[in-house]
Each structure stands twice: as C-alpha cells, then as structure tokens.
Amino acid sequence: MGKDVIIACDFNSKAEVIAFLEKFKDEKPFVKIGMELFYAEGPDIVRTIKGMGHKIFLDLKLHDIPNTVKKAMAVLSGLDVDMCNVHAAGTKGMMQAALEGLTRADGSRPLLIAVTQLTSTSEEVMQQELWIDKPIDETVMHYAKNTMEAGLDGVVCSPLEAGKVHAVCGEKFLTITPGVRFADGDVGDQKRVTTPAKAKELGSDYIVVGRPITQAADPVAAYRRCVEEFVG
Ligand SMILES: O=c1ccn([C@@H]2O[C@H](COP(=O)(O)O)[C@@H](O)[C@H]2O)c(=O)[nH]1
C-alpha cells in the first residue's frame, strides 16, 4: 500500500463536489466522503464519484451497539467503497461486528479502520472533559492495539502519533492521518496537527486533507503541494 493524499470533500451538495473534482481533469485523487455530503446526497453520491474513477474513503465513523453497526456495515458493503470506518471507542466487540457485517459472501471487503481520538481533541480536553485520565499518546496506542486485536486494518490518528502506532502495531497496520496543515496555514478546529512533509517523516500511510485544499484559491495546486511534500 503506497502513500497517498486523501482529499476530504466536505461539501453539502453533489453540484459542489462535482464542480470541485472536475478541476482535476485527468488526475483522480483519493476522495473522502464524510457525513455532510453523505447525509445531503445519500448513497448515490458514492456511486457517482466512484463512477468518475476516484477511490473512496467513506468516513461515517460508526459508533453504536454491535448489532446495529454490523447491519449498517452490511449495507455499506454494497457500496463499493475502498475504505470505511468506526470509532474504536465502540469497543472491540463492536469493531469485530463491523468487520463481520462488512465482509461480503465471497470474503472480499473494503479496508476497515477505527478512529482513536479525534485530531480536534487536545490532551487537556480528553482528560478534563472526557475523563480519560492518561496521556493522549498512550490512549491512542491503547485504542490502536484494541483495533488491531479486533482484526481491523488500521487507525485514524494524528500524524504525530503515526510512528508510535507502527512501532506498537507493525508497519503493515495502516495510519490514516487528518490534522494536516501547510506550515503557513490556518489550523482551524484541529489540535494535533503537522505538515504533509512532517507526516511523511513520521510514517503516516495516508494524509487526509480538507480545507487546506478545498478552500484554497487554487485547489489543484494545493493538492499537488500536498502530494509533493508527502509522496515526493
Ligand atoms: O480524527 C479525525 C477524524 C476525521 N477527521 C476528518 O478529516 C477531515 C479533515 O478536514 P480538514 O479540513 O483538513 O481539517 C474532516 O473531514 C474531518 O471530519 C478529522 O479531521 N479528524
């Protein structure tokens, strides 16, 4: 699995996302469809973007009782996405149920990963508001180990934690890392951030980049800057 840049296409209409993707002409970036676009347009948006030739990470972050997640994942398995996810906080049992639901009759399935701690959460908020009384690095590693033990393919974490996740869970265990900003960029609501170049150095497998590309004056140039820094 090579390194790649995934664009978080956080738009709320089909028209907007298509107009955005058409700027890329023959380039076919890996696209993340999140809650905003999926709730606005439904499963058809996945088929449309897949039909345009893009790989798709469907980022719905499922977190519910195991039976509900299993059944929801069985529905998502029919959508031909390349990657989808759950929250590791849902427990190992929930993650195993997600894997079962996602696996098709022929044994095939999309990649399944789990969110450890959102990159918008600081250690302070995690400890004081969520009452997780541990350092954030240790918490991410603990959730990553649970995710690996449940049989999933990798985790969502900050690039700042990618190297440690690989050290604990192995090089093949994927790190999908949002919380990426250019050195001169606005951090916004993200807390555990770094640049595409540093994410590469720290061992991320995929960076997920939204606003630094989608809100750029020239999104194609911003995407290429990410690829240049992260993939080289
Ligand atoms: O921990 C997480 C998990 C998911 N995300 C998602 O990634 C993108 C990041 O967008 P930016 O505009 O680059 O901040 C967004 O779709 C989030 O839902 C995350 O940021 N952190």
UniProtKB/TrEMBL annotation:
Instruction: Name the keywords, alphabetized.
Output: Decarboxylase, Lyase, Pyrimidine biosynthesis
One GO process term, biological-process aspect: 'de novo' UMP biosynthetic process
Q: List the EC numbers from the record.
A: 4.1.1.23
Q: What is the uppermost EC class here? A: lyase
| A single cellular component GO annotation | cytosol
CDD domains on file = OMP_decarboxylase_like
Residue positions annotated to bind substrate are 10, 32, 59-68, 119, 181, 190, 210-211
What are the catalytic residues?
Answer: 59 (for ompdecase activity), 61 (for ompdecase activity), 61 (proton donor), 64 (for ompdecase activity)
The pathway entry for this protein reads as: Pyrimidine metabolism; UMP biosynthesis via de novo pathway; UMP from orotate: step 2/2
Q: Which GO terms describe its molecular function?
A: orotidine-5'-phosphate decarboxylase activity
Catalytic activities: orotidine 5'-phosphate + H(+) = UMP + CO2
Specify whether Lyase is a keyword of the entry. Answer: yes
Domain (Orotidine 5'-phosphate decarboxylase): give its ranges.
Answer: 4-226
Family to which this protein belongs:
Belongs to the OMP decarboxylase family. Type 1 subfamily.
Q: What does this protein do?
A: Catalyzes the decarboxylation of orotidine 5'-monophosphate (OMP) to uridine 5'-monophosphate (UMP).
Subunit structure of this entry?
Homodimer.
Protein name, per record: Orotidine 5'-phosphate decarboxylase
Q: Lineage, please? A: Bacteria, Bacillati, Bacillota, Clostridia, Lachnospirales
Q: Which gene encodes it?
A: pyrF
